[in-house]
Amino acid sequence: QIGPSGVTRIALYYRVLSSLTEEGVRYVSSEELGERTGNNAAQVRKDLSYFGNFGKPGVGYDLTDLQDKLSQILRKEDSRKMALVGVGNLGSALLSYDRFKEEGFQITAIFDNDRRKIGCQRGGLVIQDVTELKPILSKDGISIGIVTVPSAATQKVVDELIEVGVRAILNFAPSRVTVPDFIILQNVDLSIELDRLSFFLENKGSI
Amino acid sequence: QIGPSGVTRIALYYRVLSSLTEEGVRYVSSEELGERTGNNAAQVRKDLSYFGNFGKPGVGYDLTDLQDKLSQILRKEDSRKMALVGVGNLGSALLSYDRFKEEGFQITAIFDNDRRKIGCQRGGLVIQDVTELKPILSKDGISIGIVTVPSAATQKVVDELIEVGVRAILNFAPSRVTVPDFIILQNVDLSIELDRLSFFLENKGSI
Ligand SMILES: NC(=O)c1ccc[n+]([C@@H]2O[C@H](COP(=O)([O-])OP(=O)(O)OC[C@H]3O[C@@H](n4cnc5c(N)ncnc54)[C@H](O)[C@@H]3O)[C@@H](O)[C@H]2O)c1
Ligand SMILES: NC(=O)c1ccc[n+]([C@@H]2O[C@H](COP(=O)([O-])OP(=O)(O)OC[C@H]3O[C@@H](n4cnc5c(N)ncnc54)[C@H](O)[C@@H]3O)[C@@H](O)[C@H]2O)c1
Question: What is the CATH number of domain A3-72?
Answer without folding.
Answer: 1.10.10.10
